[in-house]
Amino acid sequence: MGRLDGKVILLSAAAQGIGRATAIAFAKEGAKVIATDINKTKLQELENYPGIQVRILDVTKREQIEELAKEIERIDVLCNIAGFVHHGTILDCEEQDWNFTMNLNVRSMYLMIKTFLPKMIKQKSGNIINMSSVASSIKGTVDTPSLQQRIKAQPNPDQALKDFLARQRIGRMATAEEVAHLFVYLASEESAYMTGNEVVIDGGWSL
């Protein structure tokens, strides 16, 4: 018997990285997973896993979210994972970069919650998990395809990788699968008494 048996879970950014690992972890624990992303090719790979159905979805588009909601009668868990980290300082960030980041990282969560929360209220149950980066004064880093792309884009990728590793308190980066374990806990009945909490995976930076 899985920890998530019978739960209907909708998550964003499921095509790769943390989203993909989380979708797979949810399915392994018995959930019915609706995995969404804009990357059709990568997303379709998840169809090979029992319990996962995929939908192409741009979480910055209200109309697409509302259309998807018409297909979903019940939702037990909503996981907002989609996000983008711009490399560099504010001096390297153009206005369009700022707008894109806020639209994807913040507004998309508003749109998803605004659309699916009424279903949870109607059924008198539900769980919303929002993910965000802690890359600030806390330098916990997760090894994902997007991180690797950022590293490769640097003038000296080898040095950039060494710099990322050097700032990790336990000497390595987190894996997407390690983050997925937390998602399973938060989506399960085991965390039923947690509400409005912030949980940080930072490799020791909070100590």
From TrEMBL:
Catalytic activity, as annotated: (R)-3-hydroxybutanoate + NAD(+) = acetoacetate + NADH + H(+)
Pfam families: adh_short, adh_short_C2
Pathway the protein contributes to: Amino-acid metabolism; Siderophore biosynthesis
Molecular-function annotations in GO: 3-hydroxybutyrate dehydrogenase activity; 4-oxoproline reductase activity
Coiled coil regions in record: none
UniProt EC number: 1.1.1.104, 1.1.1.30
The family this protein is said to belong to: Belongs to the short-chain dehydrogenases/reductases (SDR) family.
Name by which UniProt lists this protein: Dehydrogenase/reductase SDR family member 6
